[in-house]
User: Fold this.
Amino acid sequence: MTNNSTLVLFGARGNLSRIKLIPGLFHLEESGKLSNEMKIVSVGRQNISQDEWENEIKDMLEKKFEGKYDLEVFDRFIKKNIYHATLPDDPNAFKNFAKLLHDDRRFPKNFAFFLSVRPSDFAKIIGQLAEENLLNDDEYWRRVLIEKPFGTDLKSAIELQKSISKHLNEKQIYRIDHYLGKSALQNILWTRFTNSILEPIWNKNYIDHIQITNHETLGVGERTQFYDATGALRDMTQSHLLQMLALTTMEKPKSFSPDDIRTEKIKLLKSIKSIPINEINKHAFRGQYKSGVIEKEGHVKGYLEELENTKSIVETYAAIRLYIDNPRWKNIPVYLRTAKRLSQSGTFISIKFKNNQTEKKLNSNNWLVFSIQPKESTYFEIQTKIPGLNESDLRTTKLEGINRLDHDEKIDAYETLMLDLLEGNQSRFLHIDEVKAAWSLIDPIIKYWSENKEKVHQYTAGTSDPKESEIIFENKNQFWREEN
Ligand code: BG6
Assistant:
């Protein structure tokens, strides 16, 4: 059970909060993870009453759980929840809010602030919290969770860090990457380091290349403006894909403590080579979806139509090739790809083993795949002989281990991460050095793409990876793996 604490949600009436945070906290309550005294203060800019807020919570839960939730738990949960309005035109709004937190005895004085607000407001809110003495952790713990993105490039990330570190030390800052809360991602480290048969083959001698894939059938939806200022590389590659890469390729940490895990991830991210500017066209590929047909949705608009701006060169498809400069991975390509509006959704880490060197004619074709979503499983593909008279007829056999059984508890990534925040476990949050290393890698590509205004490749919504993206492969024996 968590420490007695007050969790303050900024942006509590926003989308993330409605869909993930409030239902997630409800589930934590249901699982007995929140202490009796714990309180959740939702801060909003609208003047709504406590009753109205309670009705909104009810509505969120109705939608999320389709009316199926325990009413006793609901009663307990609702007592924990308090709404507080900080009206934008009230100069004393923040002062009054701070006074409430400091003085009202209902609120435990360990504070966790969850900033689910516009990135441009992060530094401002942290400054205000500090001014009201809400971040001083001499007597009680004080933590701040910051939603992604942390900066929009290396320079802005450094600036943001500079302004918040005036008020917070690294132990108080929880930079979120929600992929790290996914149980299938947590499984990678355990699979790698608890199965000793893997370690001897987890290196350049046995592995041909690695593919890290995130495909979505969804388009940018209502987030056109945000997305057009962001693009796939910033939105997915800089954060989620590089984190998956780090977990797959990092060295074994000294222990599974938060600090040791992060130390190894930082080392790994720092050892990735930057792509030379004059080779970006061979190492990186971008595309934009045009109108097409998506299963279950039917005809969908193209990105430029949704944006109502035919000039945008922002990518909705990005694929890059990277190399890790360390003895384990020297010269082994790692391909990262992410896209909106492809024919299938899924996140996979696929490891291609080298072909049999002595029997060159036999294509050994072994893959090990961590399927992160929609299915959580790990599988290995081997070649086996097809029974029959023909001596060399082989087929691919899949050895699959399902990581999530029907009766296993379903926990959303945000639930795990909110619990970590309340328990003070930073291992699934980003250290500033990880953020900086990731921007250093991505920045030159973004800059190059934004300066090269040639027409971006258009792919049809509802299709698979554009053929043209294969330009980034190191050799013709490599190809995009498609899961089904
Ligand atoms: C978010 C991105 O971080 O991750 C979205 O901003 C993306 O564009 C989402 O759709 C994907 O997350 P998940 O958990 O649905 O795979």
In short: The pocket of 6-O-phosphono-beta-D-glucopyranose is lined by residues 216, 235 (CB under 6 Å). The chain has 14 helices and 17 strands.
